[in-house]
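Journal club prep, notes for RB
We'll compare a predicted complex against what the paper describes. Inputs for the pyridoxal-5'-phosphate case:
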Amino acid sequence: MEKNIDWGNLGFGYSKTDFRYVSNYKDGRWDSGIITKDSNIVLNECACVLQYAQTCFEGLKAYRTADNKVVCFRPDLNAKRMADTAKRLEMPPFPEDRFVNAVVEVVKANIDWVPPYGSGATLYIRPYMFGSDPIMGVKPANEYQFRIFTAPVGPYFKGGAKPITLRIPDFDRAAPLGTGHVKAGLNYAMSLHAIVDAHNQGYNENMYLDSATRTKIEETGGANIIFVTKDNKVVTPKSSTILPSITRRSLMYVAEKYLGLQAEEREIYKEELSEFKECALCGTAAVLSPVGKVVDHGKEISFPSGMEKMGEVTQKLYDTLTGIQMGRIEAPEGWIKEIG
Ligand code: PLP
Ligand code: COI
């Protein structure tokens, strides 16, 4: 049944859709999993996730295409990344093929919540898992729950394609041998103070530096970063402490193979910021959000693309990536998973 929602005015937020997927891990195995209407979780007061933050998550989207199919984008890479995260957190990985099947199942169950083609909204899919049994001494849980819920969403940053302003914070996101490269809940817990502080000071987000030398650009709290050089090369930070964004990996491929641009992953120094002509955040939630300005302790670095619209190359990347996701442009083999 069609949902009565003002799709065009959705922000990036939670709303409760009809169904979610749940599987429990106990006695060394995942159960067969169910689709349920129950959006609440009852946990013991000493559950490992509550005491020691043993939790991780993923994010991907379902899109309605030009010919009214429902698809999602490279869910196999989310499955793999979640398994990598689980291992780093001493959690039992949820089998990757079952992850993809569960995404398909939960989107099918919520198919009426997938926003219409052209509305600007999409159905955000949030897989996550956590240690659920009581744990007192510091050690991993014995029991886990894996869940997936969905929620229709609009742009992550208010204003959509309007350029945003980042600041270089006096906080670090990830330690050199820490968990920055996986999608652990704890990475986000420790970013909350930095994001509130950035907002209080009038900035949209933080542009984190590498914590070992504080000289190199890493990423923001929820997205990777790409830059465009004056000679139209697309560059992105290479670092072992940033999350390997699926959007960023896809954009680098699109830049090379669809747009004929050079694309390079390399260390990027803060000193180089003023040499770029465009900058954007990339991620599932952020899609490709243009950055107009970075403020480094009072010093403003404004990109030539300005504060009014996306830069030219960013726009081409955006159009091509979203064209692939929405079925307007042919996708590389294996990128699109049809759901219904
Ligand atoms: N970096 C961080 C810290 C994130 O939380 C996300 C979001 O998932 C990304 C980057 C973007 O990754 P992806 O493109 O796979 O969504
Ligand atoms: C995503 O892009 O899916 C994210 O998880 C980013 C953010 C909302 C934490």
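Talking point for the session: Helices lie at 48-52, 75-88, 96-109, 185-189, 192-200, 246-257, 312-325.
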